[in-house]
């Protein structure tokens, strides 16, 4: 297959949020499953969550001094050119020392510098684009890299058609295999099998609108006897904990800063409320969960709305606008919980859009480029 005799060396760069980090780890795991002696190095942004999550997954990571441009004038913006220069310099040093056979960029601040250096050194480079709308950095880099692995059809409008490969987004292996986990999941969360379970996901950092919608409609959920798994995100956890304590009858409300046992959370849920980040959409598709998406308005090119509409247009999800959420979101979720036919239809349709072999297909593309 390959003329390379030594173990493969792969750099995976990017991060910033779980939506970039977990697909990257899934690619690394798939690569290691196929090539046990492969060396994999992650490169992330200093101070971002990848610097913690990647070592927890068993991989080495190095950090770049890099951040994004803010929309308003800040000290961070003034230092941005120096950060770019510093990150390119450090990327060159990492590339020279590690000598990778290929570099994979998964998005996030650290992805750009590594891919630029890889391209200049003629090292095979791959972009893994998670969203249905490509960002500016990836559109520019796509002209130079060898392959662009995408999660949605019709991405040729952003990238050179001959480089595009539709693979889907890689997800954690445990989420792809939920069969038979329902009983264990309910037991894990201390739930009653006779009552419905609603899961609320605001992303790894949290979502103000979802959290406020929960608090403002908490009495409705209590009265409906709905059991809840609620990931508030680390920015909002303490505030939501204090507000939740003001209600009586919250014994079946489980509030988390961050969910580690995502497979059990998905397995227990009858209906999910979620932001529409690419990873969430992919995981919910593979899990086959009836979902109400509330796209974040605070993202580049409004890509979460585009992600959600790709599901809604296929009859695979419900969409509630962020601006309407506080008034209608919980009512929509409760209506869905009580409509078994609609739940079954949404579950079937969203599962039909899943791409469970994404990580292995991306590994195929990397190996083909190296060979």
Tell how many strands the DSSP assignment holds.
13
CATH architectural name of the largest domain: 3-Layer(aba) Sandwich
Radius of gyration: 21 Å
Number of domains: 2
Number of helices: 15
Please list the strands of the largest sheet in the order they lie side by side: 3-2-1-4-5-6-7
Uncertain runs with pLDDT below 50, 5 residues or more?
none
CATH level 3 topology of the largest domain: Rossmann fold
Instruction: Give a quick account of the main beta sheet: strands, pairing sense, barrel closure.
Output: 7 strands, parallel
Which structural category fits the helices and strands?
alpha/beta
Look at the structure and give the mean pLDDT.
92
Helix content: 40-55%
The CATH first-level class of the largest domain comes to Alpha Beta
H-E string = EHEHEHEHEHEEHEHHEHEHEHEHEHHH
Report strand %.
Answer: 15-25%
Shape: globular
CATH H level of the largest domain: which superfamily?
Glycogen Phosphorylase B
Give the termini separation: 6 Å
Secondary-structure topology with pairs:
Elements lengths: L8 E5 L4 H17 L4 E7 L4 H7 L3 E5 L10 H24 L3 E4 L5 H10 L4 E5 L6 H6 L5 E4 L13 E3 L15 H8 L7 E5 L6 H9 L1 H6 L3 E5 L5 H8 L8 E4 L5 H7 L2 E4 L3 H10 L3 E3 L9 H10 L5 E2 L5 H13 L2 H13 L5 H13 L1
Parallel strand pairs: 1-2, 1-4, 2-3, 4-5, 5-6, 6-7, 8-9, 8-11, 9-10, 11-12, 12-13
Helix pairs in contact: 1-15, 3-4, 6-10, 7-13, 11-14
Describe what this molecule looks like in 3D.
- 43% of the residues lie in helices and 15% in strands.
- It is built from 15 helices and 13 strands.
- It folds into two domains: 9-169 and 357-370, Rossmann fold (3-Layer(aba) Sandwich); 182-352, Rossmann fold.
- With 371 residues, the protein is of the alpha/beta class.
- It is globular, with a radius of gyration of 21 Å.
- It is found in: Cell membrane.
- It is an enzyme of class 2 (transferase).
- Its EC number is 2.4.1.227.
């Amino acid at each position: 297959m390959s003329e390379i005799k030594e173990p493969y060396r792969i750099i995976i760069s990017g991060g910033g949020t779980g939506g970039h980090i977990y697909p990257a780890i899934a690619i690394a795991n798939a690569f290691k499953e196929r090539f046990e002696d492969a060396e994999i190095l992650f490169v992330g942004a200093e101070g971002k969550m990848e610097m913690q999550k990647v070592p927890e997954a068993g991989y080495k990571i190095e950090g770049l001094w890099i951040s994004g441009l803010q929309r308003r004038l800040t000290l961070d913006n003034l230092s941005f050119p120096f950060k770019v220069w510093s990150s390119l310099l450090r990327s060159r040093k990492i590339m020279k020392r590690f000598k990778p056979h290929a570099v994979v960029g998964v998005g996030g601040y650290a992805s750009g510098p590594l891919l630029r250096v890889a391209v200049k050194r003629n090292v095979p480079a791959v972009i893994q684009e998670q969203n249905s709308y490509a960002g500016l950095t990836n559109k520019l880099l796509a002209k130079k890299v060898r392959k662009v692995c995408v999660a949605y059809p019709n991405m040729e409008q952003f990238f050179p058609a001959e480089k595009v490969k539709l693979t889907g987004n890689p997800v954690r292996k445990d989420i792809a295999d939920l069969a038979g986990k329902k009983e264990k999941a309910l037991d894990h969360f201390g739930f009653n099998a006779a009552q419905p379970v609603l899961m609320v996901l605001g992303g790894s950092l949290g979502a103000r609108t979802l959290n406020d919608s929960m608090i403002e409609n908490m009495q409705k959920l209590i009265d409906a006897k709905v059991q809840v798994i609620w990931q508030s995100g680390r920015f909002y956890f303490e505030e939501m904990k204090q507000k939740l304590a003001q209600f009586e009858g919250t014994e079946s409300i489980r509030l988390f800063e961050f969910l580690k046992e995502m497979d059990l959370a998905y397995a227990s849920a009858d209906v999910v409320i979620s932001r529409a980040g690419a990873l969430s959409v992919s995981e919910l598709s593979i899990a086959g969960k009836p979902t109400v998406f509330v796209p974040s308005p605070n993202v580049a090119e409004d890509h979460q709305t585009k992600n959600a509409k790709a599901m809604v247009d296929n009859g695979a999800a419900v969409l509630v606008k962020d601006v309407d959420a506080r008034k209608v979101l919980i009512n929509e979720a409760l209506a869905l919980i009580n409509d078994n036919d609609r739940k079954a239809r949404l579950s079937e349709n969203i599962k039909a859009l899943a791409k469970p072999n994404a990580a292995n297909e991306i590994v195929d593309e990397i190996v083909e480029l190296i060979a």
